[in-house]
Amino acid sequence: MSATTAPAAPAARAATASPPSPPSKRKSKLYRRENLVAAAFIALPLVGFLTFAIGPFLYSIYASFTNWNMLSSPTWIGLANYRQAFGDPYFRTSLFNTFFYMIGIPIGLALSLTLALAMNRRMPGQSFFRAIYYVPVVSSLAAVSILWQWAYNGDFGLVNQALELIGVDGPNWLMNVSTVKPALIIMAIWKGLGYSMLLYLAALQSVPRSLYEAAELDGASSMKRFWHITLPMVQPVTFFLVVTNIIAGSQIFTEINIMTPTGGPEFSSASVVWYIWRQAFSNLQMGYASAMAVLLGILVFLITAFQFWLNARNAHEGVD
User: Fold this and answer.
1) Which CATH architecture best describes the domain 83-312?
2) How many angstroms separate the CA atoms of 229 and 212, rounded?
3) Contacts of residue 269, Cβ cutoff 8 Å, sequence gap at least 6
4) Is the pTM of this model over 0.85?
5) Which of 46, 79, 102, 269 is 20 to 30 Å from 94 by CA-CA measure?
6) CB-based contact 274:296 (threshold 8 Å)
7) CA angle 285, 288, 290 (to 5 degrees)
8) What are the beta bridge partners of residue 66?
9) For the segment 232-249, what is each residue's pLDDT rounded down to a tens digit?
């Protein structure tokens, strides 16, 4: 009898023993909880983006087809605001001034790359100079604009005092049609020099040293090494800076509003964003201002898309 019951004992214990709980249910609960936590973290910035970016953007498109002074309900007028913008000489002048300021973009990039090449060498006080060049980037734009407005003063400004040392009688920079835009370009270059320099410096430090050593062994001159190694390796940074500077340059406002609050002599310093702001909040023509803002957004989008296409084509040609 014991012979018949003994083999059945392990089977009975196996049948009565509870199977181990599958870990999938525990993982699925943790997975769902992590998703809920992630959704909670994402929800706040997403709601803020929809409320303060997408919502106003869509409403501004609607407002551009209306006559709206922000004091009464908007009335639909169709394309009248866009026809007015195309025929507005002040809008065309401000648009020209805005893109004229972008002349400083290639100048600033060239100076930034030159400084990055200098900072990439071993030299005493390297960290100090990097910090000094970056101070204007983190400084308040309003404070910097007031400082440069004082420096450009025609009577007691530091710029004209420096010119007097070499026998040059400086103009009243911000009150002269021919000098107000170059003065603002110089200030913008000085303000953004440190940011571009640090990005270029990071790109230069990531270039493999073996490339320069191989080129040097092949007898390549320093100019050829710069042209065929350095420039291609920092090209992604250059592309990023060009795109972001064009977008930022199209929105130039603070320095215009502080240094030349009336748009400069003969409207020579007014930017398109400054003109949009004046039409919206000084003349209470929000519908017309919205139309100009939409036109500016389309123009910047087309320029940015062209930059992406040009960069992709150059990259494809480089691979070929």
Assistant:
1) Orthogonal Bundle (1.10)
2) 8
3) 97, 174, 180, 181, 184, 256, 259, 260, 263
4) no
5) 79
6) no
7) 105
8) 76
9) 999 999 999 999 999 999
Neighbour count for residue 20 (Cβ, 10 Å): 6
- Cα distances (Å, whole numbers) of residue 291 to 65, 88, 170, 213, 271: 7, 12, 40, 56, 16
Residue 67: CB partners within 8 Å, gap ≥ 6?
74, 75, 77, 80, 81, 287
The 10 Å Cβ neighbour count of residue 204 is 17
Maximum pairwise Cα distance, the chain: 125
Q: Are 173 and 166 in contact (CB under 8 A)?
A: no
For residue 62, which of 270, 279, 286 has the smallest C-alpha distance?
286
What does the block give as tokens for 23?
């870990």
In the chain, where the domains are located: 83-312
The tens digit of pLDDT for each residue in 4-59 reads 444 444 544 544 555 555 554 455 787 888 888 888 899 988 999 999 989 999 99
Two structure tokens written together for 187: 């200030």
- Pair 265, 173: CB distance under 8 Å: no
First and final C-alpha spacing in the chain:
87
